[in-house]
Specification:
Radius of gyration: 18 Å
Number of helices: 11
Largest sheet: 8 strands, parallel
Helix content: 40-55%
Number of strands: 8
Structural class: alpha/beta
Shape: globular
Distance between the termini: 12 Å
Strand content: 5-15%
Length: 270
């Protein structure tokens, strides 16, 4: 599907890149980094404290079913009991979600998050925090809601799903969904798991990628006391400083820039 998307965009045989700012709305430092770096694409955590402070031309809904840290934490927008831990927050891991989440309560929560986004900005796409929607029945809801709301869902290529180590039965259940989904798949580039000191080298190494449609996911945040309250603040600052580096910007300029808005327009025409 990615090849078809490139053809629809008139970019067949080229290297195209969506530079995607994850976790917007999480902190003011995250939102300000989005404005400072100047790239249009990102996705917003609607249950997060700073969600109402994000404005942009190519924003998506970062659909959340997990709340992984001791603090800050997110609560569901709906009353579904299977989506909450004993303190009323989302569970801390995708595995907990996969074990107990009821599909009908997940659907109600996803709809609430999407509709909250429409009240704040004009969303173009959907993605999933920590891959918690990759349980096959939840992925089916994800795709159905994308069509219902006219939004583009992030769909990783199968090889990326395999590399992430998701359960084998999930991959087998997702394969037919990906094959029949009327949306493009993308190759994912995500340095989040790398040590912060390796971040600059990762970005510079993108110059060696072959032709294809890629989404580069980053979590940039400004170096502020508020931003440094997060457990992974060093990772977020490393993204910000690397993406501010002139050599990294030169490498990124080698790719044809694409937005989810571009993809949605090509999808609607196709």
């Amino acid at each position: 599907m990615a090849v078809n998307a490139l053809r629809a965009l008139g970019l067949e045989g080229r290297r195209a890149l969506i530079l995607h700012h994850d976790d917007l709305g999480l902190t003011h430092a995250q939102n300000q980094a989005y404005l400072t770096l100047g790239w249009p694409t990102g996705s917003v955590i609607l249950p997060a404290a700073w969600a109402s402070g994000v404005r942009g031309e190519d924003l998506g809904v970062h659909l959340v079913l997990t709340s992984e840290w001791e603090a800050p934490r997110y609560r569901p927008l709906t009353p579904g009991k299977s989506l909450r831990d004993e303190a009323g927050f989302f569970p801390k891991s995708p595995e907990e979600v996969w074990k107990k989440a009821r599909a009908e309560e997940v659907e109600a929560e996803l709809r609430a998050q999407i509709e909250a986004a429409f009240r704040l900005f004009s969303p173009t796409h959907l993605d999933s925090h920590q891959g918690s929607l990759l349980r096959p029945d939840l992925a089916e809801i994800y795709l159905r809601l994308a069509e219902a709301y006219g939004l583009m869902p992030l769909l990783p290529a199968r090889e990326d799903l395999e590399a992430l180590g998701f359960p084998r039965d999930f991959l087998e259940g997702l394969a037919p969904l990906l094959e029949r989904a009327p949306f493009p798949t993308l190759r994912l580039l995500d340095p989040y798991a790398l040590p912060p000191k390796e971040r600059l080298g990762f970005y510079l190494g993108l110059s060696h990628l072959p032709p294809g449609l890629y989404q580069l996911i980053h979590h940039s945040a400004l170096p502020t006391p508020e931003g440094r309250a997060l457990p992974d603040w060093e990772t977020r600052e490393a993204d910000y400083f690397a993406l501010s580096h002139p050599e990294v910007r030169r490498v990124l300029a080698e790719f044809y820039p694409v937005t989810w808005k571009d993809l949605r327009e090509a999808w609607r025409k196709g």
